[in-house]
Amino acid sequence: MNNHFRWLIIALLLCCSPFSYAGGIVLGATRVIYPSDQKQISLSIRNSDGKKSFLIQSWAEEDNKKSRNILITPPLMVMKPRRENTLRIIYVGSALPVDRESLFWLSVKSVPEKSEALAESNTLQLAVVSRIKLFYRPDALRDDPDSAWQALRFSRSDTQLTVHNPTPFWITVINLSVGGQAIDNVMVAPRSQQTLPQRVNSGDIFYQTINDYGAHTPKTRGAMQDAAAIQP
């Protein structure tokens, strides 16, 4: 049997193999706000599946690696069918900037139990990882996070658009359009600016953002200004 034929058979077997998907685990929020004056916060987690149990592993990340500054407890647990539990989130690191939010990511991996029928077969089980934003918010901030999206400003250089965020909050811009052209979503760090990689048309700018509760803010016309006049 030549190598090409052997790999074709392997590919067909993989395509026809049964899969068991780790669905059913629901987090209590799509993003988490951690006020700095709180010793810990909590996030509910629920197994909505009526038959399967899941092994749950949870951890925090920063800069694309596991964080030593955020402790998630319990880090490992079993979720029985139709049960709910709570993840406790505790900041244990050194002092963070007090003039702006800091961004972490909360990851929750769920692995379904293997039934007796599947245990006797060559079945590939997939673990599902839910990843949501975790914002550490200094208590010293006096700005209103609910109206931060209104402070966004835009500037243009030739065919490139830059989003300016003068607020101390991370802002996720969605449903952004320029002259009717849809632009990819972008998350802009506090007191900074983000130049979009797409070439943009001329015309009016419209956008929405995502608030603390995961809801969309009203569709708003963006304010275009000279980049030199915008304070970071």
3D structure, described in words:
With 232 residues, the chain is mainly beta. The protein has 2 domains: 22-137, Immunoglobulin-like (Sandwich), CATH 2.60.40; 145-222, Sandwich (Immunoglobulin-like). It has 2 helices and 21 strands. Strands 3, 5, 6, 8, 10 and 12 form a 6-stranded mixed β-sheet that branches. A hairpin with a 2-residue loop joins strand 13 (153-157) and strand 14 (160-165). It is globular. Residues 1-22 have low confidence and may be disordered.
- At the fold tier of CATH, the topology name of the largest domain is Immunoglobulin-like
Structural class: mainly beta
Q: What is the terminal separation in angstroms?
A: 65 Å
Helix amount? under 10%
Q: What's the pLDDT, averaged over the residues?
A: 87
Number of domains: 2
The CATH architecture of the largest domain can be given as Sandwich
CATH-defined superfamily of the largest domain: Immunoglobulins
Which CATH C-level class of the largest domain is it? Mainly Beta
Number of strands: 21
**Overall geometry:** globular
Summed up, the helix count is 2
Strand-and-helix sequence, N→C? HEEEEEEEEEEHEEEEEEEEEEE
Using the CA coordinates, give the radius of gyration: 23 Å
Domain Pili assembly chaperone N-terminal: 24-141
Keywords: Chaperone, Fimbrium biogenesis, Periplasm, Signal
Signal peptide: 1-22
Organism: Duffyella gerundensis
